[in-house]
Specification:
Layout lengths: L1 H10 L10 E8 L2 H9 L5 E6 L7 E6 L5 H8 L10 E2 L7 H10 L2 E8 L9 H20 L5 E5 L5 H11 L5 E7 L13 H10 L2 E5 L15 H22 L9 E4 L6 H13 L2 H4 L6 H5 L3 E3 L5 H11 L4 E2 L24 H8 L6 H16 L2
Parallel strand pairs: 1-5, 5-6, 6-7, 7-8, 8-9, 9-10, 10-11
Antiparallel strand pairs: 2-3, 3-4
Family: Belongs to the metallo-dependent hydrolases superfamily.
Keywords: Decarboxylase, Lyase
Organism: Globisporangium ultimum (strain ATCC 200006 / CBS 805.95 / DAOM BR144)
Length: 383
């Protein structure tokens, strides 16, 4: 298996990917029920069919999840040329599980742990969040149960404590749903909101895993002229860095020391900045005296996906937390290959973003490769 990966990367024989048998813990889907809801909406987030350029009759579905893109989309509806950065094209690879399977087969992924992509349910009123969460979690379970072992899932919860705890207990009854995906806003006030403690305790008691994922970005005022590039590359990773640091410094983790947290995008910048965080906290007695350990102690207890796209960055993470706390991920269906809208071969083509994640593993010890590609995921989620 790892031999096939090494041979693949040496020879660039992409067909050998079928022999890798990786487990993908960071892979998203917009379920049909969720897509229908987005198509009916008028305010961000929404999906709308738009002309790519004012001088073209070509239309495509575009997903708009960033508030500052609303004006660009509204201008497009009036016939004014719109930047292709306004929203993102969204095709069947985002909601059709047959397309997901074709992508998996092409890239050697035996099992995917599906999660709803951002912005989840954050934009809905609480009552609607509660009912929609249950429906989506049941949809996930039905999909996974009929996948012959190809799919497992992370569920979703509403953003209020009582309703969220009730949904966690429901999720715990679904055999293929092994945890939840959670945004960095928590219940809307951050991961360090004291109201989150009961939520964390319930997750821990039920043996579930939290997959922590960014959505809102940090430093967004600096990114407006550069499409989605800086928002995704910097805003997402900084968001994770800030939110997790706040959670650690709140002291709540001392009350749930066995809570299982999986951080997206290799933990943002946390592995690189852990020493600086330790030093700054140590020199602030008002904070350090509230904690039982240095911040790096808590960071070393988390799990991380291997989506770094850069071998030195992944090696930094391995050196910091050890290879037994890192799992493979792809971020599919985001960062697809550049093909024409509606091209049916998109999921049978090489996704450079996925190949890059494999390439970061190429020079690692075979045992480390096996751990990251599949064994750690099996242990974490009891697959």
């Amino acid at each position: 298996m790892s031999r096939a990966l090494s041979k693949l990367l040496q020879c660039q024989e992409k067909s050998l990917l079928r022999d890798v048998n990786s487990i993908d813990l960071h892979t998203h889907v917009y379920l049909p029920r969720y897509m229908n809801m987005l198509r009916e909406r008028q305010d961000v987030p929404f999906v709308r069919k738009l002309r790519v350029h004012a001088d073209s009759e070509l239309e495509e579905d575009r997903l708009v999840i960033l508030p500052d893109e609303q004006k660009q989309i509204d201008d497009a509806a009036l016939g004014t040329q719109v930047s292709i950065s306004a929203g993102r094209p969204i095709g069947g690879e985002y909601w059709d599980l047959n397309e997901k399977l074709a992508y998996m087969d092409h890239h050697g992924i035996s099992t995917s742990v599906l999660s709803l992509a951002n912005p989840w349910l954050d934009f809905l009123p609480t009552q609607e969040q509660t009912s929609m969460a249950t429906l989506l979690n049941d949809d996930m379970e039905a999909i996974c149960a009929n996948s012959q072992g190809r799919f497992y899932a992370f569920g979703v919860t509403p953003q209020s404590l009582e309703e969220a705890i009730a949904e966690l207990h429901h999720i715990a009854t679904l055999p293929h749903v092994r945890g939840i995906i959670l945004g960095t806003s928590g219940f809307g006030k951050g991961l360090d909101d004291p109201a989150m403690l009961g939520f964390y305790q319930t997750v821990d008691q039920l043996g579930l895993t939290i997959f922590l994922h960014p959505h809102y970005g940090v430093g967004n005022e600096h990114y407006h002229n550069y499409g989605h590039a800086l928002f995704l590359a910097l805003g997402f990773t900084f968001e994770t860095t800030v939110a997790v640091s706040q959670l650690i410094l709140s002291g709540m983790l001392d009350q749930v020391p066995t809570l299982k947290l999986l951080l997206a995008h290799s933990g943002g910048t946390l592995p690189f900045l852990a020493g600086r965080l330790d030093s700054c906290v140590a020199h602030d007695l008002a904070i350090s005296t509230k904690l039982q350990h240095a911040p790096s102690h808590y960071l070393k207890g988390f799990y991380y996906d291997a989506i770094a796209y850069h071998t030195p960055a992944l090696q930094c993470l391995i050196d910091f937390v050890g290879s037994d706390r890192i799992v493979f991920g792809t971020d599919n269906p985001f960062f697809p290959p550049h093909v024409e809208e509606g091209d049916p071969t998109i999921n049978e083509s090489d996704w450079s973003s996925t190949i890059a994640n494999y390439e970061t593993l190429a020079d690692l010890d075979v045992g480390v490769q096996n751990a990251i590609l599949r064994e750690n995921a099996k242990k974490l989620l009891k697959l």
